[in-house]
Write a structure and sequence with these properties.
single chain, alpha+beta, 2 domains, two-stranded antiparallel sheet, 8 helices, 8 strands
């Protein structure tokens, strides 16, 4: 499909930001600068807006005349601040517009543990950080880096499509052999380590389901050569085939 026929969401959602995504306290994030630079490459006319609220302030001054008479004088003025509050905590509101369509993100002002900061403790530094994060999430609403927030490693267009059922069916028919005690222990150790490995969500789910079904719910650490020889070899082959598919281009 040509880019002329694809909408902005599809184009932005397919961009691989793997080299730009960073991690902090176990969470993945994209810097506002990288998001803005990437966005402007594809949509030079894109722009963003930080929403403000008006604060009205009234001051009262006491003025003394020469004869000592005191007069109260009230003056009012207003200014705008880039955050909103319910009296307990604060949040920011940022909009990103692409091709005339605005996506808005409202985000609490949070500390470095992702907990909302009390309204009485919020500083403009906190607000500025929240604005940057809200901007990136507004870009994600347009598609840019959206997969980061769904816990995926790659955009949808680059995710591997693997037929886990076909792999399972093949492994169920796998002709096993009788292992020696040492070979069994080595394979069991490899399987336990592999099960604990890091995989995309769909692959991890498939592995867990196959292990559970093939072992009849029995814990791997309790496997024995005489009773679990066949199950272990099929699990071993299933995991290795999944890893092979993940490593292959386009999951082939």
């Amino acid at each position: 499909m040509s880019e002329e026929k694809r909408n902005s969401f599809q184009i932005l959602n397919d961009i691989n930001l793997k080299n730009k995504v960073k991690e902090k306290i176990g969470l993945s994030y994209l810097s506002w600068a990288d998001a803005w630079a990437e966005l402007k490459k594809y949509y030079p006319d894109a722009f963003w807006k930080v929403y403000h609220r008006e604060i009205k302030t009234t001051e009262t001054k006491i003025i003394k005349d020469q004869d000592g008479t005191e007069t109260k004088v009230e003056s009012s003025y207003s200014n705008e601040v880039p955050y909103f509050t319910d009296g307990r905590s604060c949040f920011v509101k940022v909009g990103v517009t692409i091709e005339g369509r605005e996506e808005i993100e409202e985000l609490p002002v949070m500390n470095n543990k992702n907990n909302a900061i009390s309204a009485t403790m919020v500083t403009m530094t906190d607000v500025n950080k929240a604005i940057q994060r809200a901007f990136v999430k507004a870009c994600a609403r347009h598609g840019l880096g959206l997969y980061v927030y769904s816990g995926e490693d790659l955009p949808e267009a680059e995710r591997k499509v693997i037929d886990f059922k076909a792999i399972a069916d093949n492994c169920d028919r796998y002709q096993t052999v009788t292992l020696t005690e040492d070979a069994f222990k080595k394979m069991l150790s490899d399987v336990i380590n592999d099960v604990q490995g890091s995989y995309p969500e769909d692959a991890s789910k498939a592995i867990v389901e196959y292990v559970g079904r093939t072992s009849n719910g029995k814990r791997l650490s309790m496997f024995e050569l005489s009773a679990d020889n066949v199950a272990l070899q099929r699990i071993y082959n299933f995991i290795n085939e999944v890893k092979k598919q993940l490593a292959a281009p386009n999951g082939k």
